[in-house]
Amino acid sequence: MMNQCPTPRHEDERVLLGHGAGGRLTAELLDTLLLPALGPPPGPLEDAATLPPVGLPVLSTDSFVVSPLFFPGGDIGSLAVHGTVNDLAMRGAAPAALAVSLIIEEGLPLAELRSVVESLGKAAADAEVPVVTGDTKVVGRGAADRLFITTTGIGRRIPALHPSAARARPHDAILLSGPIGLHGTAVLSTREGLGFEADITSDSRPLHRLVAALTRFADDLHTLRDPTRGGLAAALNEIAEASGTGAEVDEAALPVPGPVTAACDLLGLDPLHVANEGCLVAYVPEAQAGDVLDSMRGVPEGESAVRIGRTTAAHPGRVELRTRVGSHRVIDMPLGEQLPRIC
Amino acid sequence: MMNQCPTPRHEDERVLLGHGAGGRLTAELLDTLLLPALGPPPGPLEDAATLPPVGLPVLSTDSFVVSPLFFPGGDIGSLAVHGTVNDLAMRGAAPAALAVSLIIEEGLPLAELRSVVESLGKAAADAEVPVVTGDTKVVGRGAADRLFITTTGIGRRIPALHPSAARARPHDAILLSGPIGLHGTAVLSTREGLGFEADITSDSRPLHRLVAALTRFADDLHTLRDPTRGGLAAALNEIAEASGTGAEVDEAALPVPGPVTAACDLLGLDPLHVANEGCLVAYVPEAQAGDVLDSMRGVPEGESAVRIGRTTAAHPGRVELRTRVGSHRVIDMPLGEQLPRIC
């Protein structure tokens, strides 16, 4: 029952099937690449990590399958941190701990894996959240496309805050913390080689500090949502449906950078459908809108925050765009098939 | 900025790219397939789920990439619950909530997805743990092999228990809750069409009730580990390394079912290296071994629990097998490349 194997070579340049099989190669990958990038383990490696008490816990998980792995403004590693930190933030929670699980295609260059994991570790450190546990699986060539990352976060809810899509109310102001369309067009342009990569950088970044800066608005922070997959159109429609309120968005107020407009024109995309990874919409009572905007603009992530519209009792569940020429049209929930693997 | 699309057909038989893009198709997949299988959502769908306070939280994550998706005794859905529930249990925790993230290959039959997700939902219900949040991504044909599932669990640690690989001590008895080798050989036999499928059924099952049944042993429950990837050999070596104790295992005491021995002979595998998904090893003081075995045998998951060996101060960090003929040989950490995609 003995297995005499040669010592794995440290200079192996690509991920092997055995790196995911729970034996010595897995241990080596952990010791030489994953743990140095993600921070030293607090103790012996176990099947699960014990945490200090979390108060009001919030849980969120996301798988990241973005292609390519690297794009202007980020990579799958930083995105995997920001996406989950932001999902927690949208429920008014600060990130307390992350769990990270990798699915790697056999043959992925170890240098690429190291680059991604180092970026993930840096993004977690920047967001001040520890990676406390993880898993690594390797599948054969052709059974996955390079690398997928699933990040799960536990957050600690800020007690004063309880934003929810269901809490949007008629006569709320709809605020947007930054320009739209950057992440999706940055990824698509890189993937398709469209040449916009020099002009468009993903907005991928953590938003929990922006949310924390709004703590004093407490109950008035009705709804927060980051318009990722499906873009602003999906976020506004989900909120309209969950809350039973209508929404009106002013086309003239929408911050769409010029290169995003150009890329969307070329690709036949609506900027409202394009994923973002570093902005949020906030629904607050009209009377508080100015103060909330001021607070948003006081932190770097919200410095270009604007008001883009309002809710209404007039057409429950429906989102309308007030165009530059004064007409109204419906902003539909996107079907979604145009933009695979954007996050 | 409007997108007029045809209403997606409910009778679509395969997963489409758009099912993972965050738009109407994603919402439809959630409403018609995922949420009915996993239980009704407690409220509107949000980016993250709020949880009741968890006391002493434990966090664990695992990606499941088993191939094939269905095997005797389970499927990727039930396995994804049991694997994570068991990782929590090995730290003395009862499962409190699960987060489930799917990565689906475009073209997967919806019937297969439904079958897996229903099995996952049933396994979670059987383990009495709610699935509180999730994510779904779809990648193009050839970019993943059918379906991968990442399950993350939050557990509530039983206050009396704090088992850890580092807490094994010389003169502990090593107990094993059930036969070894069933899961790995069941999956391999199915994948390779070896014909053992009629005789071998995976041991995949939740172990948190077995652990709860040992609560009264408190501090004496030094170490728990479920020997999954890398099998019993990896588990014993990890514990030996983390605790600095040696271990001796009696070959004659190892419960290896006949069909497992036959399958391993055919495949050139060591049963000690084959993954299990429904048994655990427990390290307890010699004086407690009989009582702990009695308690294990009192629950169905532990009814065939046996004592397989002991720890020793004689060879710190090394695991030895005492063979039937009385000789000793080292049980090495498996290298691991023989058994990809077993869980």
Automatic annotation (TrEMBL), chains A, B:
Classification via InterPro entries: HypE, PurM-like_C_dom, PurM-like_C_sf, PurM-like_N, PurM-like_N_sf
Biological processes, Gene Ontology terms: protein maturation
One Pfam family per UniProt: AIRS_C
Domain PurM-like C-terminal: 169-320
Domain PurM-like N-terminal: 47-156
Similarity-based family: Belongs to the HypE family.
Protein name listed in UniProt: Hydrogenase expression/formation protein HypE
Gene that specifies this protein: hypE
